[in-house]
Amino acid sequence: MPRFNIKEEYTKLHSSFPIYSKKPIVGITGNYDGGKCTLLEGYYRSVLEAGGTPIVIPAFDDTDAMVSLLEGVDALILSGGGDINPLYLGEEPMRELGSVNPARDWQELMLVKLAANRQIPVLGICRGIQVMAAALGGTLYQDIYKETSATLKHSQETERHVATHSVRIASSSRLAAIFGATNLHVNSFHHQAVKEAPAGFAVTAVSPDGLIEAMESTDCKSMIGVQWHPECMILGGDRTMLPLFEWLVGEARSFAEARNFHRRFLTLDTHCDTPMKFDQQIHFDSRDPRILVDLHKMTEGCLDATIMVAYLRQLERDKASLDAAFAKAERLLTEIETMVNSNISSVGIAYTPEDLYRLKREGRRALMLGIENGYAIGDDLSRIAHFRQRGVVYMTLCHNGDNGLCDSARGAEEHGGLSEFGRQAIREMNRVGMMVDLSHAAESSFYQAIEVSGTPIVCSHSSARALCDHPRNLTDDQLRALAASGGVVQTCLYDGFLRKEGGATVDDAVRHICHMVDVAGIDHVGIGTDFDGDGGIIGCADASEIINLTRRLLAEGFSQEDVAKLWGQNFLRVMTLTQSSAI
After folding, report:
1. DSSP letters along 217-253, please?
2. Distance CA 480, CA 473 (A)
3. CATH for 101
4. Domain limits at 136?
5. CATH code of the domain covering residue 352
6. Cα separations (Å) of 381 from 384, 424, 429?
7. Helices of type H across 86-147
8. Are 65 and 93 in contact (CB under 8 A)?
9. Element (H, E) at 299
10. Which of 71, 121, 224, 250 has a 20 to 30 Å separation from 243 between CA atoms?
11. Rounded CA gap, 224 and 462, in Å?
């Protein structure tokens, strides 16, 4: 049987994809009136001047077509127009409500939700900011003069390119950075307005009478809404508003580059704990809010594969408890297999790196099997071969607490590192081609495992202790030792491993990755999110936001080839070596 070559597989996979366009495509929703789709010239002229390629999106109600559309655009502009039907917000219409446009309402509300789930950059203008708020959980005023104490004339009869009032911009906002100002003269033509911004958004501009004039995402999505009409001012020769369109086109270009990366290269998350949620009767084939990894979120975030682990809490080590741990691992692995078999047209189990590439070529997501905590084998070495035959690609030697194999980072130093049984277990794992995972292990266990193992070890979900002093993270000396032995560490997206004070964001994850690359080298670092365990941070909160991390890595200056190493190529190098060394 020919030996599998990762580099050749990467070449075959991405050779059919063109390099992304340097002029990103910006879809602009069209107005709809009397059976005609219309769009004011200012919208597409502004996109062109900012360096993008505009296309007009007509109103339609085919959800599958919307998903296909979003696969081909790099950003969205929600244009202005008529009022939004308050029935979509669970309200009855007020007498002052203007004309509604049901063809636009349903489509644009759906487009915003779909785009937000896919991290597609969005700019909402006038009606567009209101659509964003309504779609994502905010609230609207049907008529500002009836429902607020508005004192300004927000609906003007003057020419639309003329500024009619000012807005105050929050100094720390993205909007202030875009315009380089905290006070701006704008034009205004509305009587509906945002009452409350949705969760995950901050109000970033207000009018002198206190109405919301702008909001922006606070969770790393590229989404801004403004109540005024920047496209009209640009058409009138006023270039004050061009930076807003330049921001959108720049975000679209970044998004396009990241999405092109995901189309060309395989991405593997090396640790997720979704089976911990199986007792909640989760639905892997839907966008289930109870879990961070499902088929929809993997597709939205462009994540090709994940290693799902059968996690075992460390309990007693009497015979009955050890047998129960083995039985639980068996049950969880079977439940993963059953879940996959129920969705076989969309996902498959991968047992080898070659399987991962095959599934990607087939357009299917992939799951690999892992075990978190060697407690699963009890005191029976034969269970290692059994689990390997079931397809388990790695076993984490311990969890939070010493077990029969080794000391834990959160343990009592029972063995002074590895036990004799632990040493035998590592040799047996080498023999059957199962990777040795030292996340959760004590430093003594870590160094001894490197000495004992005949193949490189991995740490499937750990971060840098130099940046966040936590015993679960690796010291710089450990990183250097891991690299010297050919192993790989997978950055964990758990808040408490990235920032001691909490509140970690995707930028903190990139900071840890950069540090570990500086210490260990680009060939020895990867990503293991720990989703559905404790993983999930601002900007990469679930599998649908994986592409945000890719965008940040590319913006940091990593090449696409280096990002491919981080997104699984390094880990698969060790897996290939481990499996090919099996006796």
Report:
1. ESSS--EEEESS-HHHHHHTT-GGGHHHHHHHHHHHH
2. 14
3. 3.40.50.880
4. 6-258
5. 3.20.20.140
6. 6, 8, 9
7. 102-117, 127-136, 144-147
8. no
9. helix 295-301
10. 71
11. 34
The CA R_g of the chain, rounded to the nearest whole Å, is 27
Could you give the angle at the alpha carbon of 16 between the alpha carbons of 347 and 20, nearest 5°? 100
Q: In sequence order, which residues have a C-beta less than 8 Å from that of residue 433 and are 6 or more positions away? A: 388, 578, 579, 580, 581, 582
Looking at residue 1, what is its pLDDT?
44
Average pLDDT, the chain: 94
Q: In the 8-state DSSP scheme, what is residue 466?
A: T
Task: Please report, for residues 80, 318, 340, 532, 533, the alpha-carbon distance to residue 542 in angstroms, rounded to integers and kept in the order given.
Answer: 32, 37, 20, 9, 11
| 1 lies in some domain | no
If asked whether residues 468 and 525 sit together in one domain, one would say yes
Q: Does one domain contain both 223 and 289?
A: no
- Residue 277: both structure tokens together: 């949620």
Q: Which two tokens stand for residue 334?
A: 């079977």
Residues 391, 298, single domain; the answer is: yes
Burial class of residue 539 (count of CB atoms within 10 Å of its CB; 0-12, 13-18, 19+): buried
> Which residues, at least 6 apart from 241, have a Cβ–Cβ distance to it below 8 Å?
46, 230, 231, 233, 234
In this structure, the answer to whether residues 157 and 291 fall within a common structural domain is: no
Closest CA to 125 of 291, 245, 246: 245
| Residue 493: both structure tokens together | 């997206």
Q: What is the pLDDT of residues 64-99, one digit of tens each?
A: 999 999 999 999 999 998 899 989 888 898 888 888
What's the one-letter identity of residue 176?
A: A
d(CA 337, CA 339): 5
**Whole-angstrom distance, CA of residue 249 vs CA of residue 242:** 11
The yes-or-no verdict on residue 577 having pLDDT over 60 is: yes
349 and 284 together in one domain = yes
Phi-psi region of 373 (alpha: psi -120 to 50; beta: other; left: phi over 0): left
- CA-to-CA dists, residue 220 to 329, 428, 485, angstroms: 37, 45, 37
Same domain, 441 and 555: yes
Residues 123-143 have pLDDT tens digits of 999 999 999 999 999 999 999
Q: What domain count does the chain have?
A: 2
* Helix or strand holding residue 348 (H, E): strand 347-349
H-type helices in 137-173, by residue range?
A: 144-147
Cα distance between residue 446 and residue 96, in whole Å: 70
436 C-beta neighbours (distance < 10 Å), count = 28
pTM score, two decimals? 0.93
> Is 120 strand, coil or helix?
coil
